[in-house]
Write a structure and sequence with these properties.
Blueprint lengths: L14 H47 L3 H4 L12 H32 L4 H15 L2 H16 L4 H25 L3 H9 L4 H12 L1 H16 L3 H4 L19 H9 L4 H32 L1
Organism: Roseicella aquatilis
InterPro entries: MetI-like, MetI-like_sf, Phosphate_PstA, Phosphate_transprt_permease
GO biological process, one term: phosphate ion transmembrane transport
Length: 295
């Protein structure tokens, strides 16, 4: 029984049609590139103008009294010492509270709840919390801790900032643990190691740089939050480290001073904005360097 093969017919190439299609693709490519460059240029113009204004006005208002004097009435040559210390205390405590919770939840999602319905629900709630406006978190803590206890307090501000940092650490921890190959886990199990020891000594150690990066990004996020603190710690123009009372913070002081009619307060607001910007910039640079070193 003989078999006959039929040649596969290829489409006839029309040189004129191919040239026309090529010219159309090139025109579309040029238009797309021009639009992309124009959008990038517009964004950079706004960004550079904001940064230049901030650095010029911020450095112009920077002096030693900013770091050595507390906030005082207008014309008294006050500084931002109490606001800086208040922000450092609240951000540090929020990080110490939110980071372990975020790491444990992220570890649960990556190591124990893969593909489970409960894990999907937890992940969905974490993603919603990650994208929720911070003012809603401030209102939630206001109803939960401020109204029942009869007043604003630093602890309420710490709670609000802790809630904000948790989903950032959750997402980063889960993503970093998911990047670890399963063959590494199987090798550890093959040596007879329990799962908790495998997670702590192998997975966490392998994902250390990525997890630290997420923590630093979370600190950068909460360092400049104003809306949640308006409803929780409120602010204080005096020196105060008592977390049971209204507590000063740099974002609240900037918010209050920037809209004042007093020139010295406005200059302090620019100085405070520059301090926060530099702190966030340094944290982002550190996070990127750690992530690059880890990869």
């Amino acid at each position: 029984m003989s078999t006959t093969t039929h040649p596969v017919l290829s489409p006839v190439k029309d040189a004129a049609t191919a040239a026309r299609l090529g010219r159309g693709r090139k025109r579309a490519d040029r238009v797309a590139r021009l639009l992309s460059l124009a959008a990038t240029g517009i964004g950079l113009i706004f960004l550079v103008s904001i940064l230049v204004t901030l650095f010029v006005k911020g450095f112009g208002a920077m002096n030693l009294s900013v770091f050595t004097e507390i906030t005082r009435p207008p014309g008294s040559n006050g500084g931002l010492l109490n606001a800086i210390i208040g922000s450092l205390i609240q951000v540090a405590l929020a990080t110490m509270i939110g980071t372990p919770i975020g790491m444990l939840v992220g570890t649960f999602l990556a190591e124990y709840a893969r593909g489970s319905a409960f894990g999907n629900v937890v992940r969905f709630v974490s993603d919603i919390l990650l994208s929720a406006p911070s003012i809603l978190i401030g209102l939630f803590v206001y109803q939960l801790l401020v109204l029942p206890f009869g007043g604003f307090s630093g602890w309420a501000g710490v709670a609000a900032l802790s809630i904000i940092i948790v989903p950032i650490v959750v997402r980063t921890t889960e993503d970093m643990l998911n990047l670890i190959p399963n063959t590494l886990r199987e090798a550890v199990f093959g040596l007879g190691s329990p799962k908790w020891k495998m997670i702590v000594l192998v997975c966490w150690r392998s994902a250390t740089s990525g997890i630290i990066t997420g923590i630093l990004l979370g600190i950068a996020r909460i360092a400049g939050e104003t809306a949640p603190l308006l409803f929780t710690s409120l602010g204080n123009n005096a020196w105060s480290t008592n977390l049971s009372q209204p507590m000063p913070s740099l974002p609240i002081t900037i918010y209050s001073y920037a809209g004042s009619p007093f020139q010295d307060w406005i200059e302090l607001a620019w100085a405070g904005a520059l301090l926060i910007t530099l702190a966030v910039l340094l944290l982002n640079i550190l996070a990127r360097s750690l992530l690059r070193r880890g990869t």
